[in-house]
Design goal:
single chain, 214 residues, Immunoglobulin-like, 17% helix, 43% strand, membrane, transmembrane helix
């Protein structure tokens, strides 16, 4: 409702002209742009550094037909001092090379961590992971695992068969959190340097750090 001017019964005319309205519109646009830029800077993606810190092979128990578990720990470091990381999903795959078939393939691993997960600023989280292989597959496809007659080694021996190093592929979908604000989702995919799961004796883990790069 418009304001009355004293007791004259007349409505007051607006003190703003076209120039003032234009200047106000420009000022509003600049203010909105400044807020958008500030929000964009605050919620810009931070770095997440992945590495494989422990790797080893062990006999899978209990499995009636026998098998081999390739175990590793995936370490995720959040070096940012202001942004947390919320993981919506995190998966890891092993890149395999079959000596008998001269081909490479991928094997999905199990990352034992419920999602979503919030990682605070300036900290690291460790995610245990493992992949299961049948002993016969290890003996026939990883090379050096055949018995004297050309067939697979006995189950008790197959677990210690040497295999070529395998690369770990990490895929994650994350959002970055600053205060109460969340960024849009980001897809992260890195591949780690080859890991020798069989470098130590069966059931022994290898204490090492293998870097992962985008």
């Amino acid at each position: 409702m418009a304001a009355c001017n004293g007791g004259s019964g007349q409505f007051t005319a607006s003190a703003w002209g076209p120039k003032q309205y234009i200047l106000a519109a420009v000022a509003t646009t600049l203010a909105v742009s400044a807020v958008a830029i500030a929000t964009s800077v605050v919620l810009s993606p931070a770095r997440v550094v992945f590495s494989v810190t422990v790797a080893g092979a062990s006999a899978a128990v209990p499995v009636p037909s026998g098998g081999v578990l390739l175990n590793f720990t995936l370490d995720a470091a959040n070096p940012s001092r202001r942004a947390g990381v919320e993981y919506d999903s995190l998966t890891a795959s092993l890149r395999l090379h079959s000596a008998s078939h001269r081909a490479a393939g991928w094997a999905q691993t199990e990352v034992r961590q419920p999602m979503p997960l919030l990682q605070p600023p300036a900290c690291s989280r460790s995610f245990p992971a493992s992949a299961f292989f049948e002993r016969s597959f290890v003996a026939l496809n990883f090379g050096g695992g055949r018995g004297p007659a050309g067939g697979p080694r006995p189950a008790a021996e197959a677990v210690v068969v040497r295999a070529p190093p395998m690369s770990v592929l990490v895929a994650a979908q994350v959002r970055f959190k600053v205060g109460l604000a969340y960024s849009r989702p980001y897809d992260i995919e890195v591949i780690c340097q080859p890991v020798d799961f069989f470098a130590a004796a069966a059931a022994a883990a290898v204490a090492t750090t293998v870097a992962c790069v985008a």
